[in-house]
């Protein structure tokens, strides 16, 4: 049997705000509340479940995306006010990187989490 990640709980000070930020970033939608969670289905196998927590510790969540998705994300970022940049060493410089021969960007959400989106595996 292959191993597939099914869901991941993302701590947030406000689950609805955090889920909406993430869904808007990737052009997804927030599903109806499921128990205490504000779920966002990323693909057929993975859902991020945003959960209210006091003082959530920032996490890092990385996603390999296709070029069309990356372009759409960059359009939303360039027209919005979210912090984004080329990488941890450069801060939120509103630039992209070219690691692994593709394009990549880091985005900071209101809880301090960073979402990394890249078009080629940088490994």
UniProtKB/TrEMBL annotation:
Residue span(s) of domain VOC: 4-120
Q: Which PROSITE patterns match?
A: VOC
The record, for InterPro entries, names:
Glyas_Bleomycin-R_OHBP_Dase, VOC_core
**Which superkingdom is the protein from?**
Bacteria
| Name used for this protein in its record | VOC family protein
Taxonomic source organism:
Nonomuraea insulae
């Amino acid at each position: 049997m292959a191993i597939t990640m099914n869901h991941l709980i993302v701590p947030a000070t406000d689950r609805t705000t955090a889920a909406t930020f993430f869904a808007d970033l990737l052009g997804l939608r927030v599903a109806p509340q499921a128990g205490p969670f504000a779920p966002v289905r990323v693909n057929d196998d993975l859902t991020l479940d945003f959960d209210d927590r006091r003082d959530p510790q920032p996490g890092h969540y990385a996603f390999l995306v296709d070029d069309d998705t990356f372009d759409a994300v960059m359009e939303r970022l360039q027209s919005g006010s979210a912090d984004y940049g080329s990488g941890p060493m450069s801060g939120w410089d509103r630039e992209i990187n070219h690691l692994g021969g593709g394009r990549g960007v880091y985005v900071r959400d209101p809880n301090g989490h960073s979402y990394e989106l890249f078009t080629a595996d940088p490994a």
